[in-house]
Amino acid sequence: MARQDPHSYTDLDQGRLTDVALFLRVDFARKKLHGRARLILDGPTTGTLDLDARDLAIERICTVDGDAIEYTLADADPVLGSKLSVDLPAATAAFDVFYATSPDSSALQWLEPSQTAGGVHPYLFSQCQAIHARALVPVQDSPRARVRLEAEIEVEKPLRVVMAASMDGEKPGSDDSLSTWLFHMPQPIPPYLIALAVGNIQAQEVGPRSAVYAEPEVLEKAAWEFGGVEDMITTAEGLFGPYPWERFDLLCMPPSFPYGGMENPRLTFLTPTLLAGDRSQVNVVAHELAHSWTGNLVTNADMEHFWLNEGFTVYAERRILEALEGAEFVALHAAIGRAGLAGAVKRFGQDSPHTRLRTELTGVDPDEVFSLVPYEKGFLLVRLIHETVGAERFDAFLKTYIERFSFQSITTEQWEVFMEEQLPGVLKQVDAEAWLRSPGVPANEPTFASDRKAAVDVLAGAWGQGQRPTKESVSSWSPEEWLLYLQGVPKEIDLSDCKSLDEAFGLTAQGNSEILVQWLGIGVASGYEPAIDRACAFLEEMGRMKYLKPLYTVLAANPTTKERARALFTKVRSTYHPIAQMVVETVLK
Ligand code: BES
Ligand code: ZN
């Protein structure tokens, strides 16, 4: 069978890792993790075993008895990294890799104290999805190769290590200044879900199986913002089956975290840009929670099937929100998502293969083609099937689907076979072939009726006729309606309109980052100075790629602001995550 994943050297015919045990020391001075990974195979294995590695310094590879094992580390491919071929002696069951990560590891961001809320201690975090686990530990870095995990991570006191795993406490380190933190993850997970963070981190319980972790300076705010999490978990359990990971803890990250959220099992990572003070962005929590079933139990086989993770999860997120907030609320979220999808399709081009759900990514870096397409087009397909077969049958299907493929990693083609078995004829009925393998959005997309959405659409649509929101007309608007409105008005407006909108509604001072960024896009494109200043300040405050991309793009669209964006990027570049740096570079090129 040989290699199956276009983004990995993994060949499961050679053997399969089942367990990874990490014994690592965190060295903030050298920006390195170093130590040993014990890799355990599913049975006695002989001969070549290809692993993935990226920028890892391999010191030696040994049998568990300490005898040297031969290996070759190939030159790096720009997308895949290096193939690490280990020449296993007869009937090897386990072996040790002694190694260190690189200060430039694409999986890690090392923060100076000044980049944290406290300003005193350094911070480290990992982000392995999509294909960066190999820059943290040499493994078969493909979602098809699930592993259990154990870890002992040593760090200087008083810093604390947290991992997406059962957190088993600490023991004394190898000297008085050090402490060793213990973890294990008994359930097999795809390597992209391996995650750790180190810093001045404290915890506050917010529910029977949830704590919020954060630096003490933001802990209280974060604990309040995410305090509704238990309701979400029980709601999700009703829809998808019992929560299978014991704990659902939340880690509020420093502002340079490049994503909104990351569904690391048992410990979701969240951007602090969600801390609006009004719980208005907790859909991201619902989303990462939903991945506990769609993604972490049922996993995409590789990034060509990413829509199975994200499309199903957006659908599941909105089912949770529908149960908690009602159909109208979800209709607004679906409309916001639909506008985002339209933007993505427009940027790629109607006919671009990147607008398919089932993609072909040989030679393509998944970070470079990341977009809303698998999320929102995927959501529309799942919702269309739901509506076609009816809620009752679809709910039953969902539970069966999750049970059937728990702890497995599947392709779109396997999913299609299962669909045909469970809901015969429905794929044809909805023309799933067009959804999966043709570009653009098919005409039979589901729609979401909402009076509030309709009212916002009317007002935004009448912009050209001179209609503007009044204090009265927007007094009952939710953040979603604001967002939808700002998505609906022209991308560039008169300066006088910028001023009056801002004076009336304080948009430049918005605390909801989604509304803020949507507004700043308009303000910057319109040459409105306060928006340009705020955009530049915001780009210094955080490194979430969802915001870096549009803000740098709109700044780069005009020669004077482009210069300013370039100067700004030169100044703050080193504070961004390595992947975010790459993304901004592409924008400013
Ligand atoms: N798993 C993703 C984040 C991700 C995707 C990281 C691909 C690396 C590669 C996570 O679940 C996600 O989708 N986060 C979204 C939030 C969501 C509400 C759409 C985000 O970061 O904005
Ligand atoms: Zn997701």
The count of β-strands is 19
Q: List each distinct ligand once.
A: ligand BES, zinc ion
Strand content: 15-25%
Report the major sheet.
Answer: 8 strands, mixed
Q: In angstroms, what is the radius of gyration? A: 24 Å
Distance between the termini: 41 Å
Low-confidence stretches: none
Shape: globular
Structural class: alpha+beta
Task: Describe the oligomeric state of these chains in a short phrase.
Answer: single chain
Helix content: 25-40%
Mean pLDDT: 98
- Number of H/I helices: 19
Structure report:
This protein is an alpha+beta fold and 589 residues long. 38% of the residues lie in helices and 23% in strands. The protein has 19 helices and 19 strands. Strand 13 (202-207) and strand 14 form a beta hairpin. Helix 2 (229-240) crosses helix 4 (306-325), helix 4 (306-325) packs across helix 6 (373-389) and helix 6 (373-389) packs across helix 7. The longest helix is centred in the middle third of the chain and has 22 residues, at 327-348. The radius of gyration is 24 Å and the shape is globular. Bound molecules: ligand BES and zinc ion. Residues 129-130, 259-263, 283-284, 287-288, 291, 310, 370, 375, 546 line the site of ligand BES.
